[in-house]
Amino acid sequence: IVADRPAQIISTSVYDGQLMRIVGDYVRQGDIIVSGLITDSTGHLTKHHALADIRGIYQETVTFSQPYEVISKSATGRTKKENSLDIFNIDIPLFIKKNKFQNFSVSENCCNYKLFGKTLPIAVKKRVISENTSTSTKISYEEAKKIINEKSFLYEKNFLDDVKILEELSNESKNDNALNITVTYTVEGKI
């Protein structure tokens, strides 16, 4: 077992293998923490599957950015429908005119044919192409900070849910185009 990141080891639970580092040691990314090679008292070398739970304290740095100009898309209401026949993953168009929308979104529905309960490699794909327009909106510093706080919350919920956050330091930098906040998390988790 090797360290995934630089950290200070705070606890170890070795189930199989030989512990190469002790609690309190600092490890770099890639350092061996638990070895699967064990030498017994007679000098015989045996291979084991290294299995352990190693926890440590480490830092993780993330930068969140929010431009002051937000571009949003909205549908114009104009749509175009296209059907195609899919045979053995070969898409055969069943339409003549090409899409002339410059800004659009596509939703697709695929209906496979079945024979005696078995799915055949033949399907009809139905696409609905919706024309969109882009709208540019200027937002204030406070609105940008609120959006970044939401991004930070989602990041913590999705990526730091299985660790304990010990400390959170943030550094803010702004320019004419965007607000940037760099957050350094000190966390306790598996290494």
Taking pLDDT < 50 over at least 5 consecutive residues as the criterion, the unreliable ranges are none
Percent of residues in beta strands: over 45%
- What is the chain-wise order of helices and strands? EEEEEEEEEEEHEE
Give the helix level as a range of percent: under 10%
Terminal Cα separation, in Å? Answer: 10 Å
Query: How would you classify the helix and strand content by structural class?
Result: mainly beta
Largest beta sheet, briefly?
5 strands, antiparallel
Indicate the radius of gyration in whole angstroms.
28 Å
Mean pLDDT: 92
Number of DSSP E strands: 13
Strand order, main sheet: write it out.
3-1-7-13-12
Number of helices: 1
Shape: flat
Report on this structure.
The chain contains one helix and 13 strands, in the order E-E-E-E-E-E-E-E-E-E-E-H-E-E. The protein is mainly beta and 191 residues long. The mean pLDDT is 92.
Salient structural properties:
mainly beta, 5-stranded antiparallel beta sheet, 191 residues, 4-stranded antiparallel beta sheet, 1 helix, 10% helix
Secondary-structure map:
Blueprint: E1 7-16, E2 18-19, E3 26-27, E4 34-35, E5 37-39, E6 45-47, E7 51-67, E8 69-87, E9 90-93, E10 104-115, E11 118-138, H1 141-159, E12 164-174, E13 178-190
Antiparallel strand pairs: 1-3, 1-7, 2-4, 5-6, 7-13, 8-9, 8-11, 10-11, 12-13
